[in-house]
What we know:
Blueprint: H1 2-21, H2 33-42, E1 46-51, E2 60-70, E3 73-85, E4 87-89, H3 94-104, E5 114-116, E6 119-126, E7 131-138, E8 141-148, E9 160-164, E10 174-184, E11 186-188, E12 193-195, H4 209-212, E13 216-225
Antiparallel strand pairs: 1-6, 2-3, 2-13, 4-5, 6-7, 7-8, 9-10, 10-13, 11-12
Amino acid sequence: MKHLFLTLFFATLLLPINAKEKEIRIKSAEISHTDIINVLDRMGIHIAHFDLSELDKKEYNINFYIDEYKTGKKIDRIANFKIGRNRKDLPKKADEREAFIKSRNLNVSKKAKYWTLNQMSIYVIPESDSTVTITISCPRGAATQQVKIAALPQNKMPIYDFRTFEIAPVTEKTQEIPLAIYNSFFFDEKHNISRSCYGKITEEMSEDIFDILPHYYVIGITLKEVKK
């Protein structure tokens, strides 16, 4: 009993010493998704990714488009990329089918009869002070379009923003769906500042902000249901 008491007594004495020896350290950590997005944003590079998997319920002919607007008025459809059908037959021979799936890195069964266009991405990358490249990428490939940007009279350099629309459901046999907007800031004379502040934007583009923004590009998708 005496031996147990002494052991506990010395253990208690050592506790503060051990506590003092424990150092406080700052640890390195893995780079997060937020870090990467913040860095890209600072560089003027923007990315949006879209899940098209629900389109597999029907068969569509798909186009990607880019429209240019100035103060709410459409100037031109500057790009219209024909992608083709969202379903594509796979090679019938097993070895050719397996090689095709591997070459495209497709997430489908080796026994699948067809593959679908189930995702797409939009990238906006600055090329110069007056030009950016908009890239629309999908498993079928990528299409690019260089577009012009311009500074407001109050600013020395162009300042543009990028965001996605509140995406509408597919309800028509032929439908255009805007996906993202790349827009110039507007000058707020009341507060003497350039800004790009607005809430949700919808397919109808009926929000007041579209009449205020001096210059913008709308990137979208056109769906045309294939008759069987």
